[in-house]
Design goal:
mainly alpha; 2 strands; 222 residues; two-stranded antiparallel ribbon
Length: 222
């Protein structure tokens, strides 16, 4: 892989890891989003988490399955390191004059360990499913119909991801069980909507990168 391709791949990894880690850190804030006649009740983290699936599909299409899997594993290590940092920060006692005292820090980041743990399990399952389904459909369609493998893989993997993460957060006590149905249905519906909206973005990215690296349809840099 050329230096130019390597640099672009590193940019995608940066976008992927930032979206993954930050989404876990901010998940405890929920808001209402009126959209297309519906009033979605969502975590602010869900706004940016779909970026991980968009990036995964672009990397799969241009750089190949191996690089996509490599990026997913890198995200796992980044999440574990994030978990370690927060755990140490939470353990250390605040000074009397600290702008953020122990109570506030625990209130904001207290469920982060549970969130990151749940997210890592859900994310690992969903992303690996996404990559496998994506390449399965790519092989079946002989590199054609990008919209089909993009949306097909993302919708199924997001179903798994949404169910697992909300189930684990409810099981761990971070979210009330009474909220499970609402958060699952609305979260999954929102992710499907985003998957459809981001299809033109994926087409644009793939078209630009194919032209840049002189790739034929179905061909990767792998």
């Amino acid at each position: 892989m050329s230096q130019s391709a390597q640099n672009i791949y590193l940019v995608f990894i940066s976008l992927f890891i930032t979206s993954l880690v930050v989404s876990n850190l901010i998940f405890q804030k929920f808001f209402h989003l009126p959209l297309l006649g519906f009033n979605f009740e969502l975590s602010v983290g869900i706004l940016f988490y779909p970026i991980t699936f968009l990036v995964t599909d672009v990397v799969s299409e241009i750089f190949g399955k191996k690089k996509a899997n490599q990026m997913v594993i890198t995200g796992i290590f980044a999440s574990i390191f994030c978990l370690l940092i927060i755990s140490i920060a939470n353990y250390l006692p605040a000074t009397n004059w600290s702008p953020v005292n122990n109570k506030i820090f625990k209130l904001v980041f207290g469920n982060t360990i549970l969130a990151v743990g749940a997210s890592m399990l859900a994310y690992l399952c969903a992303q690996l499913i996404d990559i496998r389904i994506y390449h399965f459909w790519k092989k079946i369609t002989k590199g054609k119909h990008l919209w089909l493998r993009n949306n097909g893989s993302t919708i199924f993997s997001q179903l798994v991801d949404t169910f697992l993460i909300i189930f684990l957060l409810c099981s761990g006590g971070a979210i009330e069980w009474a909220k499970f149905d609402t958060l699952f249905v609305q979260g999954f519906s929102f992710k499907i909507l985003i998957a459809i909206i981001d299809t033109p973005i994926i087409y644009a990215c793939v078209l630009i990168l194919r032209k840049k690296f002189d790739l034929k349809m179905g061909e990767t840099l792998e």
